[in-house]
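Example 4.3 (complexes with small molecules)
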Amino acid sequence: MKVLFTDHDLLDISLERDLFREAGITLIEAQCRSQREVVEASEGCSALLIQYAPVSDEVFAARPGIGLCSRIGAGYDTIDTAAAQRHGVWVANSPDYGVGEVSTHALAMMLSLLRNIARYDQDIRQGQWHYSTAGRIPRATNLTVGVMGLGRIGKRFAHIARNTFGQVIAYDPHIIDGDFPAYVRRVRSLDELFSQADAVSIHCLLNDETRGLVGASLLQRMKPGSYLVNTARGAIVDIPGLLEVLAQDRLAGVGLDVLPDEPITRDHRLLADRRVLLSPHAAFYSAESEVELRRKAALNIVTWMRTGRPDYPVVVGTRHPPA
Ligand code: NAI
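Answer. The structure with NAI bound is encoded below.
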């Protein structure tokens, strides 16, 4: 069986090479940026291992031999799942490798904003040594933290944030009351979440429902001096709307690990704002989580080849591995 590694930004792929070699699978490597390039590179392949390459109808129609797309990551928004379903192609991901990393990163960003850590550091390097340089700091136990999306990462975030903040509230329209831990108060609308929380952390998926959902009208509902952190997907936040609200001096700090267009351009307006704290889509990363992520994504393909079903299916397909 032959597998195409559609694209990656990894420094070394010996982990994948070794794992596939042991399973008797041939791995070919490309750096596809478009569906056309995926089609061209995937002749004779039965599965795709994908980092960022877009995959939809064009690929599935041109390559009926491809039965599985395994995404290196928890999110799978670059794979058109509706198209995969139509063509009977399995889609799998690596959902649980970095729950601790992402939730810790989100809390670290939130606390850095709240305690003004990054700004103090900048001020000290410019010769200013005083606790007041970064402005007023509220007491964390007087604040309410809000979680948007109480899935795997959102729940862990709520768990580790609850001893720091006075109250945890959360909005998630797709889960039942029983899935809300006792220490999390459920709110029934995004309006309530954004107007009641002093700091909101975004942990929902990116889909048609959530794309651009956090924009000017919602952010304007936040109390003056509030904080926003996004470690989920960049396109959930409407950046022009965010810039508009930043200009109105409402938000005290914004932490973004993800952006609609990554990497950020050198002249981006966000870079000029001291209230904005950025990291380069790094929330998933620890030495251990990276290995777990890559192993699980590759093993989806090995397991599918052996059993006809990947370890972590997102779309249940009908195409079979080659006999
Ligand atoms: P999950 O699927 O376990 O949880 C997502 C939750 O969002 C679900 O409970 C769902 O009901 C909820 N949700 C869906 N629509 C919503 C809406 N309109 N409003 C509020 N909640 C909504 O996903 P998981 O694993 O917790 O991942 C969360 C996010 O983190 C995803 O966007 C994922 O892509 C992202 N992520 C980011 C990483 C990074 O390095 N920055 C690494 C790993 C994941």
